[in-house]
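Give me the fold.
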Amino acid sequence: MSAAVVEYDPLQDVRHLRARSARELADWKAWLEVEEKAPRTLDAYERTIAALLVMFPRHEIGDFTDGDLLHFLTTFPKKSRRIRKAHIASFFSWARKTRRIASNPVELLPTIKRHPQPVIDIFTPTEQAALEGLASPDGNLMSLLFWAGLRKLEAINLRSKRIDLDNRLIIVREGAKGSRDRVVPIVKPLRVPLAELLLLEGIDDEDYLWYDKPGGGWSTTVRRSKPIAETSFGRWWTRCIETADVDYRKPHTCRHTCATNLRRMGYELDRLKRFLGHSSISITEGLYVHTTVSEDADRLDMLFEVQA
């Protein structure tokens, strides 16, 4: 029987704490925290630089060369090297800005090719209708995922007080990626399901929208006083998928489906970028809008008819 393969975790390998550049890592992390980087971003950055310090424990921060960084990058799979380089670039740019180094070795590294993203299999209209048609409150929560374009952590941390039905707005704050708050308009297909959810479930201002059942799924007790755990959210999602009898996709597929549906209806890319909370319109266009070639052809035909 072969031994299980355990993924290397640089933060559990305390050797990086004894490296000569450990103080710079700590100072850089404090800098990022003051900049209010999201915890997940901080964790990803720290893991990369911790691994770098483990590989070169005797290096002072000014000792690193582009050759050192190249060899470090080759230890990662090709598809992850681009993001690892971005982590390294942030670290050494900070060191250059704070005059800890005279020159930045990252500037001598090659440009890493962006690998094409896989095509996302979004939900079909029939599948979306089946999920939104689930019994309350599950169907109502599905409508929220499909029409507000929420990320999983944004959904988990959404409280009733962030919803303004009168002005048709949802304030996305807790759980927002990169701590970038945004205001999402409540689109027409979401207004009734969302209002019914708040009314029929008796959700108070401080309550979270996603519910949990302490003690397991058999329990009749529903709790909304705390955010639902990610594992519990995963069980909720799987149960809904199975009940609706649709092919399994990740919860994030709802966000892709939302973007594609709004774009198909003619919603402008710059507005869609703001709606989804993206930092770049290229992300919105390249990764979140999954229109087909035949749809593009139909759109072009319409444009030519207008010109005729």
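Confidence is low (pLDDT under 50) at residues 1-6.
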